[in-house]
Specification:
This protein is mainly β. It is 8% helix and 33% strand. The strands form 3 sheets. It has a 3-stranded antiparallel beta sheet, with no helix packed on it. It has a 3-stranded antiparallel beta sheet with strand order 6-5-8, with no helix packed on it. Strands 1-2 form a two-stranded antiparallel ribbon. The longest helix has 14 residues, at 2-15.
Length: 169
């Protein structure tokens, strides 16, 4: 009898059941071992009930969401032609970067693209960002002005960099 009780206690300890129902643990994750991970949340998710809250970054609520199947989309490239610059002498301030965007040469028809530019400081940190839209035919190229969002930071900008050019619906 005593051997059976000890064996049952070991089995319960190894599986994570604490005797409080459905394997709920007191905190810091745990519970029964199944395909749902808590990743540091203060509870776990079971198919028919949810204990605790899923706080913290990277926590998984336990529900499965299938990844969307990528659909073919047109790609484009962007190259900075001119960056922003503060006023100097008689030359006025330039508060928008000029980016040359080239549409996907294999695309059919025209596509709308959203481009994002980071305005970087001396330590390569992002001082500001900006975005713009352009519609291009397959393989066509066009220069686009991408304005700073916060022109008050113009004096801190040392470089402009295209971060992303993506098809936009």
């Amino acid at each position: 009898m005593r051997f059976t009780a000890v064996l049952a206690g070991v089995v319960l300890a190894l599986t994570g059941f604490s005797g409080h129902g459905h394997g709920k643990s007191g905190g810091g994750g745990g519970g029964c071992s199944n395909s749902h991970k808590s990743n540091g949340s203060s509870g776990y998710h079971h198919d028919d009930d949810n204990y605790g809250s899923s706080g913290g970054s990277g926590s998984n609520s336990g529900s499965y969401t299938p990844s969307p199947t990528p659909s073919p989309s047109a790609t484009a490239t962007g190259t900075v032609v001119t960056c922003v610059s503060p006023a100097k002498g008689k030359r006025p301030a330039v508060t928008a970067a000029t980016v040359r965007v080239t549409g996907d040469p294999l695309a059919t028809g025209s596509h709308r693209y959203r481009l994002e530019v980071a305005f970087l400081g001396a330590a390569d940190e992002t001082v500001d960002t900006g975005s713009a839209f352009v519609t291009l035919d397959a393989g066509a190229a066009q220069s686009v002005q991408v304005p700073m969002a916060l022109t008050s930071r113009l004096d801190k900008v040392k470089e402009c960099r295209v971060v992303k050019v993506m098809e936009w619906s």
